[in-house]
From TrEMBL:
Protein name, as recorded: Gluconate:proton symporter
Keywords of this entry: Membrane, Transmembrane, Transmembrane helix
GO molecular function: gluconate transmembrane transporter activity
TM stretches of this protein: 6-23, 30-48, 60-79, 100-130, 177-199, 226-251, 257-273, 285-308, 328-351, 406-428
Species in which this protein is naturally found: Enterococcus durans
Domain of life: Bacteria
InterPro entries associated with the record: Glcn_transporter (IPR003474)
Alphabetized Pfam families for the sequence: GntP_permease
GO cellular component: plasma membrane
Length: 430
C-alpha cells in the first residue's frame, strides 16, 4: 500500500456512491464499504491494496468506537431507570404551564445533554408535551419544534456518539468539545423557544386521541436521577477546569470518557438502589449504540479511501483560487453530510473522516473545526431518509406531511447554532 495515491475524483465517486446507496435504503454500513471499494478500484488500487486501505481506515476509528460503546452504558441507565423521565417531569412541573414551551425545550436539551440520545429524549418528553399542549392549546407543530430544537442544542454539548466522533475525529478531549459547544447551544435553545412561541397557534392541535392513557407510576426522586449524569459531567470537566484555573494536578489528569461514563453509570445505578439492574441497563445501552458503532466502521473504510487520495490537496487548492475562506469548509461539510444521511452522528463521522484533513489544511484549528462540523451536522439532519424524522413523527402522532412542516424550523435552529459557532470559533477566536 506504500506510495499509493488515489485520484481525487475516484474518492469523490466512492463517497457519492455510498451516499446514493444510503438514500436507496441500503444498509449504511454496507453502503459505506461498497463506496470505499468502488473508489479504490476506480482509483487504480489492486484488490490486495483495496483490502489494506479499508482495514487501515477501519482501524483508525477504533478509539471512537470504544468511547461510543462507553456512552451507551450511560444512555442505558438514564433511559431504563426512569432517571431521564424524572428530570423532564421535574423541569416542566417547576416552570409551570406559563412557560410551557421553554420548559419542554429545556427538558429535551438537558436530557440529551446528560447522555440520552436525541430521538429517545424526544420520545421521553413527547407524552408530557402532548399533555401540556392539550391544556394550553399549543399546536403539535410548535411542540415538536421546541422538543427537536432543544434536543439539537443539548446534542452538541453531550457525551453522545456525535460529540465523541467530533472530538476523536480531530484528536481532542471530549470535554473540550462539549464546553466549546455551550454558547452555540444556548443560542439554539433560545431560537427554538422563540420560533415555537411564534407558531404556537399554527398547525394542528393536540387531540384527545393523541394522548394515551397510562398508568401512573412512581417517578424516581430527582436527587437520585441526577447522580449518574452529574457525576459523569463533573469528572469529564476536571481536566479542562484544571487547565483554565492553572491547577497542574487537575490539568495533568487524563480523564477519558472510555472509563468515566461506565463508572458514573454504575455508581449512579447503585445510588438509585437499582444495582441488580446493572446488567439489564448495560444490555439496553449496548443495543442502542450498536448501529452507530457499525456505521463508524463503515465510515472508517471511507476515511481510509480519502486518506490515500489527493482529495484534501485538491479541496484546499480550490478554496484558495476561489478566494472563499477555508473556514467555511468545516460547517459546509457537516451540513452536506447531515442532508445526505439524515443523522447527526453519521454526518459527523463522515465529515470528519472525509474532510477532516482538508479542513485542518486550510488553517482552521482542531477545536474550531470540531465545533463547526458538529453544529453544521445539526442543520438538515432531520430529513425523511433518517430514523429521527420517523421516530419524532410517531412520538407526536403526526403524519408525514405534518412532520415535513417542522423541518424548516429545525433548519433555523441548527443554522443559528452553526452561524454562531462559525463566527465565534472560525473568526473571533481563530
Amino acid at each position: 500500500m506504500d506510495g499509493i495515491t488515489i485520484p481525487w475524483y475516484a474518492a469523490i465517486i466512492g463517497l457519492i456512491f455510498a451516499v446514493f446507496l444510503i438514500l436507496k435504503k441500503i444498509n449504511p454500513v454496507y453502503s459505506l464499504f461498497l463506496g470505499a471499494i468502488i473508489g479504490c478500484l476506480i482509483g487504480g488500487a489492486s484488490l490486495s491494496n483495496t483490502v489494506d486501505i479499508l482495514v487501515t481506515g477501519t482501524q483508525s476509528i477504533m478509539g471512537t468506537a470504544i468511547r461510543v460503546l462507553a456512552a451507551g452504558m450511560l444512555a442505558g441507565v438514564m433511559m431504563e431507570s426512569g432517571a431521564a423521565e424524572s428530570i423532564a417531569h421535574a423541569i416542566v412541573n417547576k416552570l409551570g404551564s406559563n412557560k410551557a414551551i421553554f420548559s419542554l425545550a429545556l427538558s429535551t436539551m438537558i436530557i440529551t445533554a446528560v447522555g440520552v440520545f436525541i430521538p429517545v429524549a424526544v420520545l421521553i418528553v413527547a407524552p408530557i408535551a402532548l399533555s401540556v399542549g392539550k391544556q394550553t392549546g399549543i399546536s403539535k407543530l410548535a411542540l415538536l419544534t421546541a422538543l427537536s430544537g432543544g434536543g439539537k442544542a443539548g446534542n452538541i454539548i453531550s457525551p453522545n456518539p456525535n460529540t465523541i466522533a467530533a472530538a476523536n475525529g480531530f484528536k481532542l478531549d471530549l470535554s473540550n468539545v462539549m464546553i466549546a459547544g455551550f454558547i452555540p447551544a444556548i443560542f439554539g435553545l433560545a431560537t427554538a423557544v422563540l420560533i415555537a412561541s411564534l407558531i404556537k397557534k399554527k398547525g394542528g392541535k393536540v387531540k384527545d386521541s393523541d394522548i394515551q392513557e397510562k398508568l401512573e407510576k412512581e417517578l424516581l426522586p430527582l436527587r437520585k436521577a441526577l447522580i449518574a449524569p452529574v457525576l459523569s459531567i463533573v469528572l469529564l470537566l476536571i481536566n479542562p477546569i484544571g487547565t483554565m484555573l492553572h491547577i497542574q494536578v487537575l490539568a495533568d489528569l487524563k480523564i477519558d470518557a472510555m472509563y468515566i461514563l461506565p463508572f458514573a453509570s454504575i455508581v449512579g445505578t447503585i445510588a438509585m438502589g437499582q444495582a441488580s439492574q446493572i446488567r439489564e441497563y448495560s444490555k439496553s445501552g449496548i443495543y442502542r449504540v450498536t448501529d452507530t458503532v457499525l456505521i463508524l466502521i463503515g465510515a472508517g473504510a471511507i476515511a481510509g479511501l480519502i486518506s490515500v487520495s489527493d482529495l484534501s490537496k485538491q479541496v484546499v487548492h480550490l478554496i484558495s483560487i476561489t478566494g472563499i475562506s477555508g473556514t467555511f469548509l468545516a460547517p459546509i461539510s457537516g451540513i452536506l453530510m447531515g442532508l445526505a444521511v439524515g443523522s447527526t452522528s453519521t454526518a459527523v463521522i463522515l465529515a470528519t473522516g472525509s474532510f477532516g484533513h482538508a479542513i485542518l489544511e486550510t488553517g482552521t484549528n482542531s477545536l474550531a473545526a470540531a465545533v463547526m462540523v458538529h453544529t453544521g451536522a445539526t442543520v438538515i439532519d432531520s430529513v425523511p431518509q433518517g430514523n429521527y424524522f420517523h421516530i419524532t413523527a410517531n412520538s407526536m402522532n403526526m403524519s408525514i406531511k405534518e412532520r415535513m412542516k417542522v423541518i424548516p424550523y429545525e433548519i433555523c435552529v441548527g443554522g443559528v447554532m452553526t452561524i454562531v459557532a462559525t463566527i465565534l470559533y472560525g473568526f473571533i477566536l481563530k
